[in-house]
Amino acid sequence: MESKRLSRLQQQKALIEKKLSLEKLHLQVRNRKIETRKRLLIGKMILFAVSQDPSVEPRLRQQLDHFLKTKSDRALFNLPERRECDA
Protein backbone atom coordinates (compact mmCIF):
# COMPACT_ATOMS: atom_id res chain seq x y z
CA MET A 1 0.00 0.00 0.00
CA GLU A 2 2.77 2.46 0.96
CA SER A 3 4.80 1.64 -2.14
CA LYS A 4 1.79 2.38 -4.39
CA ARG A 5 1.27 5.70 -2.64
CA LEU A 6 4.96 6.53 -2.89
CA SER A 7 4.99 5.61 -6.57
CA ARG A 8 1.92 7.78 -7.24
CA LEU A 9 3.49 10.72 -5.40
CA GLN A 10 6.72 10.33 -7.38
CA GLN A 11 4.73 10.36 -10.61
CA GLN A 12 2.90 13.48 -9.49
CA LYS A 13 6.21 15.10 -8.57
CA ALA A 14 7.66 14.27 -11.99
CA LEU A 15 4.59 15.72 -13.69
CA ILE A 16 4.76 18.91 -11.61
CA GLU A 17 8.49 19.28 -12.36
CA LYS A 18 7.79 18.86 -16.08
CA LYS A 19 5.04 21.49 -15.93
CA LEU A 20 7.32 23.81 -13.97
CA SER A 21 10.10 23.40 -16.51
CA LEU A 22 7.70 24.09 -19.37
CA GLU A 23 6.33 27.19 -17.63
CA LYS A 24 9.86 28.51 -17.07
CA LEU A 25 10.59 28.00 -20.77
CA HIS A 26 7.42 29.89 -21.75
CA LEU A 27 8.39 32.73 -19.43
CA GLN A 28 11.89 32.92 -20.96
CA VAL A 29 10.43 33.06 -24.47
CA ARG A 30 7.94 35.75 -23.43
CA ASN A 31 10.67 37.83 -21.80
CA ARG A 32 12.89 37.47 -24.86
CA LYS A 33 10.03 38.68 -27.09
CA ILE A 34 9.46 41.68 -24.80
CA GLU A 35 13.17 42.54 -24.84
CA THR A 36 13.27 42.26 -28.64
CA ARG A 37 10.21 44.52 -28.93
CA LYS A 38 11.84 47.13 -26.67
CA ARG A 39 15.01 47.11 -28.78
CA LEU A 40 12.98 47.46 -31.96
CA LEU A 41 11.06 50.43 -30.58
CA ILE A 42 14.24 52.14 -29.37
CA GLY A 43 15.72 51.67 -32.84
CA LYS A 44 12.62 53.11 -34.48
CA MET A 45 12.75 56.10 -32.14
CA ILE A 46 16.40 56.75 -33.01
CA LEU A 47 15.74 56.45 -36.75
CA PHE A 48 12.83 58.86 -36.39
CA ALA A 49 15.05 61.31 -34.49
CA VAL A 50 17.64 61.18 -37.28
CA SER A 51 14.96 61.73 -39.92
CA GLN A 52 13.65 64.78 -38.03
CA ASP A 53 17.08 66.25 -37.27
CA PRO A 54 19.92 65.13 -39.53
CA SER A 55 22.44 66.78 -37.21
CA VAL A 56 21.87 63.81 -34.86
CA GLU A 57 23.37 61.37 -37.36
CA PRO A 58 27.08 62.16 -36.84
CA ARG A 59 26.73 61.62 -33.09
CA LEU A 60 24.84 58.37 -33.71
CA ARG A 61 27.53 57.13 -36.12
CA GLN A 62 30.20 58.01 -33.55
CA GLN A 63 28.36 55.98 -30.93
CA LEU A 64 27.89 53.07 -33.34
CA ASP A 65 31.57 53.19 -34.24
CA HIS A 66 32.45 52.89 -30.57
CA PHE A 67 29.81 50.26 -29.71
CA LEU A 68 29.89 47.85 -32.65
CA LYS A 69 32.71 45.32 -32.53
CA THR A 70 32.04 42.56 -35.05
CA LYS A 71 32.80 42.88 -38.73
CA SER A 72 29.23 41.89 -39.71
CA ASP A 73 27.61 44.40 -37.33
CA ARG A 74 29.88 47.19 -38.54
CA ALA A 75 29.15 46.32 -42.18
CA LEU A 76 25.42 46.89 -41.57
CA PHE A 77 26.20 50.55 -40.92
CA ASN A 78 28.99 50.89 -43.52
CA LEU A 79 31.59 51.33 -40.81
CA PRO A 80 35.18 50.28 -41.49
CA GLU A 81 36.58 47.20 -39.78
CA ARG A 82 38.10 47.90 -36.38
CA ARG A 83 41.82 47.81 -36.13
CA GLU A 84 43.35 45.82 -33.28
CA CYS A 85 44.46 48.99 -31.48
CA ASP A 86 40.86 50.32 -31.66
CA ALA A 87 39.37 47.30 -29.93
Number of strands: 0
**Count of alpha/pi helices:** 3
Give the amount of beta strand, in percent.
under 5%
Residue-averaged pLDDT, rounded? 93
| Helix fraction by DSSP (H/I, runs of at least 4) | over 70%
Overall geometry comes to elongated
Name the poorly predicted regions.
Answer: none
**How many domains, in number, for the residues?**
2
Structural class: mainly alpha
Note down, in words, how this protein is organized.
This protein starts with a helix and ends in an 11-residue tail after the last helix. The chain contains three helices and no strands. It has two domains: 1-52; 54-87, no CATH class. It is elongated. With 87 residues, it is mainly alpha-helical.
What attributes characterize this protein structure?
single chain; about 90 residues; mainly alpha; 2 domains
List the helices and strands and how they pair.
Blueprint: H1 2-52, H2 57-67, H3 71-76
